[in-house]
């Protein structure tokens, strides 16, 4: 195959894969072309997509965030504690507000912790975020005494089950987040600086880029978005299980980012690419599930997708 | 005699833009052959096609009489073609030994790498270049020049029949250039051919037999060095009349003829963990102050200390606006200081970013309007500098890594000029730019100096320093030892001052 085709493929590989998946499903998956299927997929892809957007920013600085799943668990554990408290029962709207804002803020603090390790102590990102990857879920389980918390709270559940114009609320949320982050990455100084730090950290520093603050920022954003994703998972299930929320999410998010065209060496932040990547990962999962293939096999399929995406990236040669 | 290498009718386009159109190159066995041309003429591209980095669109390559089809640099290497690329392609975090023997490690009986003999062999190879360093240390801990010589040592140590050097001397000082010439002559004596790409035309007359001249992607002439002159080569490169060029004059920054103003920068008794022990230097408004000295004398380190990249252990830096000095580069930039680094690849360009984004990186804070970057103004500024500096590119949205070396250098210079700084620290500002562009860059610097900018100039080219600087502060082993005043400085005087201070230190 000559160079031109490779370039083409690496640029549009995601769309080609997406089209292929749709086609396969239309042919083999029963009841694929139904509104219900669309809703299920949108509501499930939303969490991957939201986390993948944050992951894309982190990877753009040549970092990586393994703690996203653990952060989701922490946020997901805190929220019910708040809205089920006596205080929230007495002040329902304030309670709901706090049940959303506090977990996200706590998540951001977790992200600042990651960022501080990376930016100020010079810990390698993979190690720095591994710390919270391990301890975060533990913290979430301690918070909930390891119990499954179930609840009925229509206000909070709206995050996971609400609809606007007939489409799931979280689908709209993804769209808003993607647009805002895309705008930030492409139009603001902070966004430009993220790419500079990932592209050549020395050059960035020499041109006056506050490298540490930029890194702190991307880990905080990644964690904040993970927190939001954690709330959505809890809202969908009307239950919070600290042991399971966001389990293996780091893999899905990294896969989505890479499939979307993010280079692990940093310097690129294709936000909508990451969304497309998330959709592809979700569709693969759904395809296998709907056709009765075991979960374990789905994991292998995901791994194969990552390998393929990286291979296509490598194939870019003049 | 049958040529060792014959490249004919080579065409290459990048995304539809032609970089080479029917380029030719013919190298005889045991010949030292120069390839020259302006920035962006296609020299590096031609080499990269030969070594399998790029694939040609069409054309013939014959090596040793047989058609050559290499797909990768490794294959070229195995065919006896060794290359030192313009951009260093070594691994700074690995040891010197690993870098020299990478891919060709000596093995023990068990198939493991035999480190003892690897280190010994590396030491031996480098000693041949007059370098005696600890080869177990990370390569990145040594200066650019040592890294450059290491790359050359690596290429030469492999059993090559053709050694290609793409601007090998751009980061070397005179003494090291002599060492390199010794190596080139040694190769020639062994019957190895050398392709030598350089913008220093004087060098060609010392070591080359013939020169291929390229212009706009084409081979326009092949000359016997003995039958031509520097002016003749320049005329070939530019496609202009020799008389016309001679009339225009070929230099300079015009040191020693300027009225200088108030003090802009005063650095006293600088002391850092990196080399500096006691350096003092003052720069006035509208003045060019040169830093002279051998490699490793602390010139770059002095610049880094002033720009607050390295922490001061002693001494003070003060500028007219900031008597307290700076605590990081961002502050220095806000304080009106710009610093063009010598290491374009490691500290200068952000390779995947566009020319536009690279050019405005330091300027960003001033381009922000209501939270967003003012793209209209950004593009205006970029276009202005692309025109003013004659930067050759397909579009300002092109990734900077696709530009030729000299054009990348111009973008980086523009990055700092766009800031309209009071003080510019220029570390090898004309490294890798062609003769024409060098003159342009020097006159642009001159223009800014006339407007009152102060310049601290570091250059391995004595000519640039001697003719450009109003004063030269001579450094040696991290200490500023003496100062020369223009007019009146000659190359001889500068070399004398450097040597003298050296004797004083060793005595
Ligand atoms: N990978 C690439 N993609 C697109 N254009 C390229 C690429 N590499 C080189 N070019 C273009 O090809 C032309 C020739 O570049 P080349 O690097 O060969 O010049 P050069 O003669 O080596 O110049 P210099 O003296 O500045 O090193 C330039 O216009 C450059 O922008
Ligand atoms: Mg070149």
Which descriptor suits the 3D outline of chain A? globular
Residue-averaged pLDDT of chain A: 87
Radius of gyration of chain B: 23 Å
Second-tier CATH architecture of the largest domain in chain B: 3-Layer(aba) Sandwich
* Number of extended strands of chain A: 4
Largest sheet of chain A: 2 strands, antiparallel
Beta content of chain A: under 5%
Given as residue ranges, the uncertain stretches of chain B (5+ residues, pLDDT < 50) are none
The share of residues in helices of chain A is: over 70%
CATH class designation of chain A: Mainly Alpha
- CATH class of the largest domain in chain B reads Alpha Beta
Report on the structure:
Chain A is 76% helix and 3% strand. Chain A is mostly helical. Chain A has a single domain, classed as ABC transporter involved in vitamin B12 uptake, BtuC, CATH 1.10.3470. Chain A has a two-stranded antiparallel ribbon with strand order 1-4. In chain A, a hairpin with a 2-residue loop joins strand 2 (163-164) and strand 3. Chain A is globular and about 55 Å long. By secondary structure, chain B is α/β, with parallel strands linked by helices. Chain B folds into 3 domains: 5-248, P-loop containing nucleotide triphosphate hydrolases (Rossmann fold); 250-336 and 422-507, P-loop containing nucleotide triphosphate hydrolases (Rossmann fold), CATH 3.40.50.300; 343-420, no CATH class. Chain B contains 19 helices and 21 strands. In chain B, a hairpin with a 2-residue loop joins strand 4 and strand 5. The longest helix of chain B has 16 residues, at 174-189. The radius of gyration of chain B is 23 Å and the shape is globular. The N and C termini of chain B lie far apart (54 Å). The mean pLDDT of chain B is 86. Classes of the chains: A mainly alpha (318), B alpha/beta (507). The interface between A and B is medium-sized, with 23 and 31 residues. The complex binds adenosine-5'-triphosphate and magnesium ion.
